[in-house]
TrEMBL record:
NCBIfam families xrefs: Ubi-OHases (TIGR01988)
Family named by the database record: Belongs to the UbiH/COQ6 family.
Protein name: UbiH/UbiF/VisC/COQ6 family ubiquinone biosynthesis hydroxylase
InterPro entries: FAD-bd, FAD/NAD-bd_sf, Ubi_Hdrlase_CS, UbiH/COQ6, UbiH/COQ6_monooxygenase
Range of residues in the leader sequence: none
Originating species: Novosphingobium organovorum
Domain of life: Bacteria
Residue ranges of every copy of the FAD-binding domain listed in the record: 17-353
Amino acid sequence: MSDSNTGLVTADDTRRDLIILGGGLVGMTLALAAARAGITSHVIDRADPADLVAEGADGRASAVSTASWNLFANIGLGKRLAPLGCAIDTIAVTDGMKPGRIDFQPKPEDGSLGRMFFNRDLRLALFEAAEDEPNIAWHVRTEAVRRTRGAHGVEIELSDGRVLKGSLLVAAEGRQSPTRDEAGFSMAKWDYKHRAMVTAFTHSKPHEGTAWEIFYPEGPFALLPLLDDAQGRHRSALVWTVAEKDAAGAIAMSDTMFINEVAARMHGVLGEIALAAPRLSYPLRFHHAARVVDERLAVIGDAAHGMHPIAGQGLNLGLRDVGALVEVLSEGMRLGLEPGDAQLLARYEKWRSLDSVMVMAATDTLTRLFGIPGRLPSAVRRFGMAAVQRSGLLKRFFMDEARGMSGKLPELLQA
């Protein structure tokens, strides 16, 4: 993987339409989606891409909604990614494996509820496409040490001394975005005092494309279907939420003890299990930027909003940002406006604000609702779940939300 600056369409070799800070899943998807629309970009990332896609470096997996899959297909990654994703055909939601669960299963003509991908496979596809895309100049193993935004454009000085110019600065640096913080965006944020334990495991029974969301008072416990490995062993991803006060003990467990604890919470639904990936953990916090634009600046993905992984919508929300931003910019540029035009940024912010707030509020409410201990709250929850199970209309609504097909969708996220 190299730092490439080929294919510029302007006379000035340092200037492009966008300067994207952060070349992760959301930042690089933005660069590719913009490139397909004829929008040029600099992508700056301090990491070494080879480290990010090394075997065993990251065993995490992500749920890609139907709408997000449409985005990947529409920017030319469908053929590359299709064999690597495991379809989520059913989502089973249960309160501690007690009676009264919900089974979300779409009609055959609606397709799956999403697909599970290893993050490594997504990165490999994105990075390979970026290397072959002349509209993307990719700068790795470096970072911005100065950011200047003004009436005539943006200018970034890199740690290696280079200076890059553009019309719009996009912060896609993740939850700890220095660009967002430097711009002084006000944030709503709180700590759930929980930690996510993440890994993948093999199991003796086939998952049959079912994702399990098992709610316990101490936190949700998600089993997410993956493709069988090269030896034909069945695999699933795990996201196990534990209270922060118990996290040190969970992290210190031996692999054998960890697997035994996981198996006890699974009630045998996947049979015998064994670890298939490194165990990772990270704290769970909520944050939401009151604004996502400023003068010649747009903030996307986790830099703008971070939520509990309870519904697997974090990456998908960032990809909706990508689709909306590219649509707004490409339409504006066809009218002769530059990407950093304040009118375009205002339109983008208006489009994304309501959608992101609704998704994040729903996720936060679910987290709190299922975290209330006691028999009575459990009985009330299971009564409500049984009602949803019987209601075709409600089930359809929730399935559309899970598939990312609700609300005003950008064209890139449509089939």
